[in-house]
Every structure is written in C-alpha cells, then in structure tokens.
Amino acid sequence: MKLTDFTLKPSLLAMLAAATLLTACGDDDNDTVDETPPAPVMQTFTVTVTNLTANQPMSPVILAAHASDAMLWNAGEMASEAIEKMAEGGDTADIAALSLINNSINGTGLLMPGMSETLTLTLDEADVASISLATMLVNTNDAFTGINSYTIAGMEVDGSSSMKFMAYDAGTEANTEAKGTMPGPADGGEGFNATRDDVDFVHIHPGVISMYDGLDDSVLDASHRFDNPVLAVTIRRTE
To answer: What is the reported pTM?
Structure first.
C-alpha cells in the first residue's frame, strides 16, 4: 500500500484531537497568577500634648492604640500594676506590653510646664479604633493624667479634636509629699513601690497640699499646686 493511500480512521482522529486539547490545557497551567495581596491602607494621626501646670513636669508620654472596648483605667476601680508603675515612677514599659495594645509610641523626654510635644502614630486601617495616652505628674506621689480610650475611627483626613484633661490619683501611694517619696526634681526620691498604702482605687486628684498649707513634712511648695485641667491635647488625622 502506498503512503498516499493511507487514511486515518475516525477513532484515530478523535484520539489525536483529544491529545491536542490536553497539550493546550497543559500550556495554560504554566501561566502564573498574581496573588500579591493589596498594600495595606495606612492612617496617620498626630497628637499634640501641652502641660498646663505651673511646676509639675510630666513623665515621657505614652500614646497607645487599641480596640474600642479597651480601657487603661477605670475611676472607682483598682489601678493595674501597669498604671501604678506609670503613676508612681513614670515607667510606661508595662503599659506598652499590655496585650490590648496594638501599637504605641513614647515621648522624647519630660514634658515641662508650659511646653508642648507632638507624637505621630501610623496605623493599619484595620487597627484604627481608639487611642489612650498617659503621663505622670512627677512632683507628686501618684498623680497622672491622660486620655482614656478616645475613638479615632471615622476621623476624616485633616479632621481634628481638641480637649483638656484632669489629674487622677492612682490611689496606690499615700499623698504624703514627704522627702524621698517622689521621683520629680522637687524631691528626687523613689518611684514605684509595690506596697499599696492608700485607698487603692483611681479617683480625681485633690491636688497637693505643700508645706505652706500646713503639711509640715511636705517637700513641695506653692508652685507645685495644680488645678484641673492639667493637660491640653489636640488629635489630628494627617493621612
């Protein structure tokens, strides 16, 4: 039989067509699919704090982001050890380490009376909920101030909010104002002391008494007195 007389049977034609189709499918499998996730959307907030007192330097501020249902302290309830350490000695490390904190940043140093500082916090859009801020009035036994869970979700770019905040007493250390009991420049004494010898609940601070008000053992004077509010804060979304 001549080669030119050879004819493929229909069944063979079907097999060749199937093989061709499978080859084409195999080529499609080699195409790469871009599965790179989209870049996260970030939001940036600046928080400017101003010390309103006459002679109460404030410890380096901590600014922290967290879920909307989280609180750093509750008036009328016991202070956590993290708040106690901050309110007695200005140490914010334990606050930053709390599991409820998503992100945090610290100020660069003491916030002196009349001075301002701006902190910047950049968050993934998924983590934008609430922020808190805390700082100690260092010429006291355990006075502190700050923001306790302020909602920033939904704030528009260039939107801002300004507020003033009062001083709290951590209730963890008696307000003796005695020499050696306060870490600020008026005394240079100890900071955190694990012993709790006060009412042991957070409350509005009544203010210092000082040696000129009849507290004979106090190392504070009239310049260390403060009235509420003690801290001004402006929150602005910049991006």
So the answer is: 0.84
Please calculate the CA angle 21-27-29 and round it to the nearest 5 degrees: 110
Q: 127 near 96, Cβ under 8 Å?
A: no
What distance in Å separates the CA atoms of residue 236 and residue 158, rounded to the nearest whole number? 6
Output the pLDDT for position 110: 98
How many Å apart are CA 178 and CA 228, to the nearest integer?
A: 23
Token digits for 171?
């209730």
Task: Report how far apart, in Å, the C-alpha atoms of 206 and of each of 168, 202, 209, 218, 238 are.
Answer: 8, 12, 9, 15, 37
State phi, psi for 23 to the nearest 5 degrees.
-65, -40
Tell me, what DSSP letter sits at residue 21? H
Sheet bearing 231-237, strands edge to edge: 116-124, 42-51, 231-237, 160-165
pLDDT for residue 1: 45
Nearest to 145 by CA among 105, 202, 190, 101: 202
- The side-by-side arrangement of strands in the sheet containing 62-66 is 101-106, 62-66, 130-136, 143-151, 167-169, 203-204
Cα gap 239→236, rounded to integer Å:
9
Which tokens belong to 228? 């509420």
